[in-house]
What we know:
Blueprint: H1 18-21, H2 47-55, H3 70-73, E1 84-89, E2 101-106, E3 109-114, E4 132-137, H4 155-171
Antiparallel strand pairs: 1-2, 2-3, 3-4
Amino acid sequence: QGxxxxxxxxxxxxxxxxxxxxxxxxxxxxxxIEAGTVSDDxxxxxxxxxxxxxxxxxxxxxxFQGRSIRPILEGSTPDDWRTSMYYRxxxxxxxxxxxxxxxxRTHKHKLIYYYADAxxxxxxxxxxxxxxWELFDLVADxxxxxxxxxxxxxxxxxxxxxxxxxxxxxxxxxxxxEKDRG
Length: 182
């Protein structure tokens, strides 16, 4: 996981910005992966256990959240492979100075909801803030310098991203923040 060294004005690694969220994945397996293979598919760390079991020839338990990336590594992305991913940082601990938030990333956009509430957690920042949103067009603004949340041009995209984010939240049995229920 990347670490902010002043990027976006932060020194941490828990925010959903690209510097912390995206990491290169290098895999070497001469018997099954062609050298120089490159993919832009969304791979998550929850995919690693399923991948290891797959390469070991073992069954992948149904309760695993992730999927084996073996087909991708071998050059064939499944038709039903994810096109979005969900992220949540919930700890809101005082010594991190990172507000609790969740969001969704697609290949072209990222939507983040900062709810900044300790939710009664011990050791958490007890300084509630009004929730706020950020939306980034990752094609037009890959460095995420200008949020376009609230821009009427992005109203349809915002609605689609929220719908998908709530679907992914439900898929992993996560809860929406109480002020994000309207």
